[in-house]
Amino acid sequence: MKIGLIQFCPVPRNRDQNIATANKFTDSLKKGDVDYIILPEMIFTGYMFENKDDIKEFVEDGETGVTVTWAKNLANRVNAFVQVGYPQVINKNGKELYYNAICIVSPSGQIRNYHKSFLYTQDEYWAEEGEGFQTYDLPELGIYRKIGPGICMDINPYKFKANFEEYEFANFHLKEDSHFIPCSMAWLSSGDEINLINYWLTRFSPLILKENTTPDQPIVIAISNRSGTEKDTKFAGGSCAFKIEGPKKLSLLGRLSEKQEGIIVVDTED
Description:
The chain is an alpha/beta fold.
């Protein structure tokens, strides 16, 4: 499976310019170049919103919105799945509910929307909690068909209050036997790129230590994180992908540094 990880610093509240940047990184792709493309969390709007009124003009419908439509066009053109983060609005019983979401669009145009389950402080200003972690069956991905998408804070302890070693996200996907974990993130920078990767891997410990993982049925973790600064908040970049082929048998497939912008395509079979 070939995975495209896109990383850049979005211009806050300028969806057209951010889509143009994403187009710049994907225009050269053609059918066969990639099977699954991941973009960061809320990459076309920016991340720093202060309340529901602040984000109101940027929330989108999960079937016909700007972001989903863009993803459908790209998925169709390159014959790949496309995952991208955006703020979604859903009308329930006459009430508008906002979610920090990702859409996952298939080459045929089927849309799946996942809602961030563990909200970060910045999300709590405007977003509802998601319904819980999810798995999806995507037969086109072969041995990686059972996927477990995540959004940033999902991999942390709930509200930073749960026991660190509960590993809620990783243990959920251990139980569900997920084999591809594509994550869209807007993860903040600590200034230490090595510690960042080590922390991410720690949060996936239950999957890395899984006893029955083999080279014939591996697990792949792929992270697309935004870069740059927004409202004095610095983001960590560091988009990367790892392959697990047995207990503690872990290999780095590829990564971008904190400040890099662009797309990296990694092949799980290399």
